[in-house]
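hey so i finally got around to running both of the ones u sent me last week. sorry it took forever, my laptop kept dying halfway thru and i had to restart like 3 times lol. anyway pasting them below in the order u listed, first the sequence line then the structure token line for each. didnt double check formatting much so if smth looks off just lmk and ill redo it

first one:
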Amino acid sequence: MAPKPVRGSDPGGTDDGRPSGTVLDEGAHERGQAKRAVVVVVLVWLAFVLPTFAGQVRFPVDFAGSQDGRPTVLANPEQGDAYYLYPWHHYLGERLAHGEVPLWDPHRFGGTPFAADIAVGLWYPPNWLYAFGHPLHVFTVISVASGLIALLLVYWFLRVLRLHPYAAAFGAIGFAFSAFIVKWATNEPVTASVIWIALPLGGLEVARRGKRWRGTLLAAAGLALAVVGGHAQLALFVWLTAFVWTAIDLAATTVHARRAGLPLGVLPRRLAAAAAPAAVAVALALGLTAVQLLPTKQMVDGIVRQKTTWEVARATFLPRRHAATFLLPDYLGSPIDHNYDGPGVNYTETMAYAGILTLPLALYGALHRRRRVVLLFVTLTAIGFLSIVGTPFYRLVIAAPGLSRGLFATRFILLVDFGLAGLAALGVDRLVRRERLRHGRAVLGGSFVASLVGVGWLTLGRPGTSLPASYILPLGARATAVLVLGAGAVAVMMRVPSWSGRMSVALILVSASDLWMTGYRFNPFHAARPVYTAQPPIGDLRSVPGVRPRYASIGTYILPPNAAMVHGLYGLDGYDPLIALPMVELVGVAEDQLARAHSNFLGPFRPATAASPIFDLLGVDNLVGQIERVDAEASVGRPMLARPGAFPPAFAATCWELTQPDRVLDRISTMSSPALRDTVVVDDVPAARSALHATAGRGCTAGEVRVTRYEPERVVMDSEAARPSLVVLTDSWFPGWEATVDGKHVDVLRVDHALRGVAVGAGRHEVVMRFRPRPYRTGAAISLATILGLTGAVAGRTLRRRRGPPGSPRRR
């Protein structure tokens, strides 16, 4: 009897070019191909990150000032976000290096939670490296390693799906170097969340195939890492893909049970067994990330950004003109070439490109016989596409819990790129294994022709772009060359089966070259040099006496928004996706900053605002920026001006008013600086009523308060007054601040809408404020219990496996 051919082989030859009739061990043969595929993907990754090994950093050190609050970066203006992240990493590393967990940041917005801010990624393990090295070098290591992690995880997932190694390599490269991943490479919270997208999917598939314990742990790890990575919206996308994969699995289980004629009573048990790994993985991920999720939940309930409305979402849909960038990614220009003319939204937010070869191969892959896998990638692509173009489907998306806070619909491009890369991998798998389907060649050939026609029309006609032909023609010529080379490789694979392995590698390299030419130069590497240097205002601000001098930017940013975190200063302004609403509303009495806060900024302020009593109340004793417009006698270009009328960091008042919380701002807006100094407006809540009584207008006198110790999570003050008084620390109020007066616990009251106050009796007292948020402690206990439970379970399972089953010689 003739031996059966190896799966995927052909009577005329084998995948690696050996002559027909050779009997191969399929497992060993495919393992060899897998090794070659991994080598190829690693070499492609090296092509993107090679300057790292020459000592260069993947950080835009070519900073050249700022304009309208956004850093001006010479090589690539789209990389300004890296400057806002740098201070977070610096502060995180500095505190961790001293053995401290940074719960509070006193340097921005009058003080703001740090650990609760999911964007800083405190609990993301790679970020702990900032405690051991310079932020530039650690940032570079994490950035380039993230690309490799995304690459290998997607490859692993596609291999778990039993796709051919070369097909898995093609899909992994298409996703890991897609426009979405490459363009966000210097925004660490984004990449730290999305690179794990394949891990939960692969874990659930491993569990489905019988290794339930291992698969469940892998899925839980992927979901947890996506959360602590730092970008809440994209972490939800990762969880969404796991939900879709589970739903498809349940649907497949139902169809299989019905076709097998199983009784209806058996179906619920089958569905419960199929859903169990996903349910357990979600529970474990929630337990592991409770230390982040609970404090973040408390924080986001009081931030500027709340539910996204349909009107706001419409402004973030992908404009029609950008459809051309699916074929020619720089059809509307590029910030690298300083000619981008995309309307309304920036280049990074609108790029959707996973390689031009991905499109025809994705259409071909949609015909694959693996319907369950096809349905996954088609569903993700459809969800992403229907969201980014602004269909009514997006109304359902923004109504979902969590996703309702997502501002940019275009970030659903992540699902489009991932779905297209997966479908393209299925297409390559069909080609390598020579899966013959009816009309398959016609579909593949037609898709290549359509892509060529589309490229030609865009290149020659240039509809929807104002760029000259001299810029568009090279883009079109390059895309045409890639399509022609790809189509040639596909044709050889179909006609000469013995060359299928070689042509698969050629197809991978052609697609990788296309992505390299598109994405490599978007993230310029530079020689490391100081970023947040000691500019002239820094030295002046450091010399200001007092424990906590506070400055505000006027007119424009001379210092980057978060520079205070790097230099140990205290600023009113800053940058963060999570800005507390009370402080923005209090500042809004002087100048409406709500629109800027929606764009993640507080400040800079108009010169006229510098005279506001609110600036006095907040202790803003120095201005930095366009000072010549504030002080007519100041010399042009003077960077700093003192405000002698600012309140001290802490003061005591013997008069206060209990006012309904929704009317506090109205009352403050009518008060002058002396009135704000003498009378404190307190939220009329039970805690305040039990600690205070109305004293407004009864001979107000000022008490003396001296701050003796000012630390991020602990402030010590000595107060002295002849009458009972209210000690006010002009820092942000936030739940979790506790206080003691002479060692006895008292309530921290919310005063003047956004500040902290403590009631004290007459005489001299020591007031100590500590930041000890209960959600953090509860979350830490849950996360620790989850880790200990998992450790015990793994240890017990390992011990049982080593001892063997009951009655075995090893047990005896």
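and the second one:
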Amino acid sequence: MLRNYFRVAIRSLLRHKFYSILNILGLTIGMVCFMMISLFVLDELSYDQFHKDANRIFRVDFMAQLNGEAIESSNTGAPTAKALKEDYPEVEDATRLNATGNWFIKEKGTTKTFKEEHVLMADPNFFDFFTVELIYGDPKTCLERPNTLVMDRTTAQKMFGDVNPVGKILVLDNEDDYEVTGVYEDLPDNSHFHQNILLSMITFYQPWQNDAWLSTNYNTYIKLQEGVTKADFEPKFTEVIEKYCAPLIMRYLNMNLEEFGSSGNQLAFSLFPMKDIHLKSHKQDELEANGDIKYVYIFSAVALFILVLACINFMNLATARSANRAKEVGIRKVMGAFRKQLVSQFISEAVMLTFISCVLSFIMAALLLPNFGELAAKSFAIGELIRWEFVALMAGLVLVVGLFAGSYPAFYLSAFRPAQVLKGKVRQGMKSGPIRSALVVFQFSISIIMIIGTAVVFDQLAFIQNKKLGFEKDQILMVNDAWILRDKAESFKNEVMRSSNIEDATLATFTPVSNVGNSDVHHKDPVATASNSIVINQAWVDYNYLDVMGMEMADGRFFSRDFGNDSTVCVLNEAAVKAFGYENPIGDKLYHANDGPDGELIMEESTIVGVVKDFHYASLKEKIGPLVIRLGRGNGFALFKLKGQDVKSTVETISNTWDEFAPGQPFSYTFMNQRFNSMYEAEQKVGEIFTVFAVLAIFIACLGLFGLAAFTAEQKTKEIGIRKALGASIASIVTLLSKNFIKLVLISFAISIPLSYFAMKEWLNDFAYRTDIKPLTFVIAGVVALVVAWVTMSFQSWKAARVNPVKSLRDE
């Protein structure tokens, strides 16, 4: 029986080649989109699943709110891990990681230097806690001693080749010797942290860290005992705060915990499941830039909708052509066929067509995989398409799509009554017209929503590019890792400035596009209270910073060599002035509490000499927060403001000067506008992906329209011939054949406006500074959909209208 079903199905497909090709093309494109997005979604959902105890591992997060200013950090204080493990039997184990920035590394006795950007400090139990395979070395002891490190396989091969490097000595930053005590397997891509090198945590231990509960510098992870849940353990943090944090609040803010809370302030610890970090965590101090669960939902919906659009084409064309198969159904029933057998026949045709599309989609996906990987910023291997899980998913998809696409036509066609069919009383399309129209409306509604979504994403990106940021990001070259120059940094800067292409230069650890900085509690008065204290971001710069960055002063002055005491002064931004409640801040004092050498509390005092106009020093997703700017403290970047157009020779000049001052050290640079754009890389990728899938969605919808227009023209051949014989023009016939479809597109446009508006308004809510959704965006999207649909239909209508009426009426 099955063999007969498929034989008839093949004959039907070959007999109606045009409609078969339309269906196969639409389904193939839909399935390719589904496959690609499924790879992306499955990869995003797989993060950190490779750890053996992933379900029991949580990161400890910290939240504090003081006088209306809040921080939510993925870091906690140094003693958190040890205290939780020792105080609570529910905690099976705890460990810490700490990002340390870039390091210059070379083997002792050699001159070749490597720059490593992904370096973490780790506790000795790292390899017991996380599922990371150690190739060489002892996992129990490799991070126990000071000045030891382990590296991944790729780094070891880059530095030492294929030999076992355990016991080798490396020099870090031209100063400290470290012994290689292990080599571990490269971490998979789907990990929320990636490090090339792990340094032993004990190397950096300082006694003051034992009480540093409020100094958040460490990513702390705990592993709960079997059967203990997040909800079970989180209430314990109340005890932790009372035992460890309350004395510090009294020490630094002169109030007990009850007074602290009653003033509207907050202090809290929480657990964040490790498996959710990549998609759901967007806090300060993340080890890496994470993904976003919203985009997983959005792309999953896009994949599903595009596949549904292709299925709708099949259903529309099948029901539209119902009269062509009505006699077949009537004869089969007269010959004794049951309705169940007819349903099986039509569904088997749909499954076969879907299977052909699936095979073609695998081939197309394999060819497009590198391009999609580049678009999605992921590395997909062809082998992922033939994993048994993915093959099983696609096999299930063939059955589901075949049943979904073929079910309505099957039940609709099999319901024909043989007596009426064989008497020729079946009208074209029967009662499927309204349903067919509804499906066309659905198709174009989705297509228009995607066009509007794409336009709004790019509008927001254009808004970001054109918004006044409060600083100049163009024509500024950033030399990274200037700290390696140490006391030669100033000389390096001055030497480069001798070039005629350099307008100005500055050294700084902080730039508005580098996210380099930290936050701490500062006070308006020498006696700290909750009401005169806020959490404020800090930045360290040098004298020329304001001029190079093109910032403006709102009041007072910036740092100047004309004053001898600028190491004890500070500059605030306008947001800080507002947060502290200063009326005339110039000359006022700002205080910061520090522990003295004998354990006494020292209130460090700074004089406010200026107020800089607010500038965006973080993503536009965040409001401008309070900032205090100080003079000095390191040289992370050397910033050069270019005035010439000969960028290539300028970069070459800076590179040559670098080689003179830092021989053997890798030279690294970027332009500030490039670094700024990279802050919105995720949004740019969304815009690009939306563009591709919006085009494909409207293409699939137009394929369906193309087929329906061709079928309509075919059914109205004689009517067209008569109208032409009576003098009708080609234009009037084209209008006759296409006006109903145009109405459907207009209805789709009306439906898509409110849906797309609310969807994109929700997306824009992620940005503190955002564009308005313009009415013109909807108009353009509607016009694009209307024009594309009209061109699609008019082509078939025009072909039908040009046929000689003699041929159309020949058989009458």
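quick thing i noticed on the 2nd:
The mean pLDDT is 82.
anyway thats it, ttyl
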